[in-house]
Specification:
The protein is mostly helical. It has a domain of 241 residues. Helix content is 79%, strand content 0%. The longest helix is centred in the C-terminal third of the chain and has 35 residues. The two termini are 28 Å apart.
Length: 396
């Protein structure tokens, strides 16, 4: 890094700080259920997930980093100044949310920050938008998925003497969301960049909720004749392993935010000719998110682990396993998703197996509001920050 301009060095430091704050806030995602069920003490859970968060970026590809650095705004909008302002806005939002105990998505804060700074730099032409045909295709498939989803979940609820009307409603919503990633994996549709990120604001919690709901029903039927202590003895270690897997997948997805931003910064400043991620960038980013995890966001842990619903060890195992699988899938697709939303959806899913009243829907609504407003809020803050900094620089 010898010979780099001060703004580039400052940008790299900010990017690592962003990953640190990411770990600070997102520590709760991997350890919320394992702490709630007392499978691990908070200290052991934090340090174990910190190690897994560091390992994650080395196991998977850098597809998420490429999305952050190339598929949200055009290359002309990615200047050292715009990138630095975007990261600054993201860090402020995530840090404030952590202090307030709000599980804000650091992924979406960064996306909104890049959008706002990019628009401030060259206008709305900075945003990489999907084609109209792609949007129409996705929504057509979503409608097609809603019908079988409603039928399947209604049949399952009827078989296990559940609420059939609730099953129809949940099934139609989940069916619409589940069919999109299935078709993406099958190669039927191709969704990338900003459109994929916005879609998965809704799809990832739905996947978590539906997957955990079904998996919880299956597991509960398998152990319904077992003694509670025996079930706890079996599922506590499995729950711990599932949470460690979730932390690894989280590191692979969220841990690549700084990787993508630093690489884009090096490209925009001429230090790199093409978007090829240096190994030292991956290593530095992994260490930053691991250190952030060690300090944890305990207010967010309390909200996720205790306020949404009460969970048992086997339910924590179900939620962590499903959210891990989802994070692995989207990471391979190169989609920066919110691990907050994924694990929260899974926690809600296992909670709803005991009925609608088992979930604190007021808490869920508060979190959903935070999810929806994160990108627009980060966009506005970043745009205002870019315009202010630009004005100050012209006056100097």
């Amino acid at each position: 890094m010898i010979g780099m301009e001060p703004i580039i060095l400052f940008g790299i430091i900010l990017a690592l700080a962003l990953n640190f704050v990411n770990g600070l806030n997102d520590a709760s995602h991997s350890i919320a259920t394992v702490v709630a069920t007392k499978a691990l003490s908070p200290i052991k859970a934090v340090f174990s997930t910190a190690i897994c968060n560091m390992i994650g970026p080395f196991i998977f590809s850098t597809a998420v980093a490429a999305t952050i650095g190339t598929a949200i705004v055009t290359q002309g909008a990615l200047t050292p100044l715009s990138i630095v302002v975007a990261m600054g806005a993201s860090i402020v939002l995530v840090f404030v949310a952590t202090r307030m105990g709000i599980p804000l998505s650091s992924s979406h804060a960064l996306v909104g920050g890049l959008l706002g700074a990019g628009i401030g730099a060259i206008g709305f032409s900075a945003v990489i938008l999907p084609g109209a045909d792609t949007v129409f295709q996705v929504f057509s498939y979503a409608i097609m998925g809603a019908i079988p989803g409603a039928l399947v979940l209604a049949i399952i609820c009827a078989a296990f003497e559940g609420d059939i009307r609730y099953g129809v409603l949940l099934g139609s919503v989940c069916g619409a969301g589940i069919i999109i990633p299935i078709l993406m994996i099958a190669g039927v549709i191709q969704i990338h960049g900003l459109f994929a990120i916005v879609l998965f604001i809704f799809i990832s919690p739905l996947l978590g909720m539906a997957g955990a709901f079904l998996f919880n029903i299956l597991v509960s039927q398998m152990i319904k004749h077992s003694r509670q202590n025996r079930a706890k003895h079996i599922f506590q270690p499995l729950h711990v392993l599932a949470c460690l897997g979730q932390a690894t997948a989280h590191g692979a997805n969220d841990g690549q935010h700084a990787v993508g931003v630093i690489t884009a910064l090096l490209v925009s400043s001429g230090f790199l000719v093409t978007f090829e991620v240096p190994v030292w960038v991956i290593l530095a980013s992994a260490v930053a998110i691991g250190l952030g995890t060690c300090f944890g966001g305990w207010q967010v842990v309390d909200k996720m682990a205790k306020e949404i619903t009460k969970i048992r060890p086997y339910q924590g195992f179900c939620a962590a396993t499903v959210s891990s699988a989802i994070l692995v899938m989207v990471t391979r697709q190169g989609i920066p998703v919110s691990s907050t939303q994924t694990i929260n959806g899974a926690i809600i899913g296992v909670g709803t197996t005991r009925g609608r009243n088992a979930v604190q829907w007021k808490v869920v609504r508060e979190m959903m509001t935070a999810w929806i407003i994160t990108i627009p809020l980060a966009l506005a803050v970043s745009w205002a920050g870019y315009m202010l900094v630009s004005f100050v620089l012209t006056m100097v």
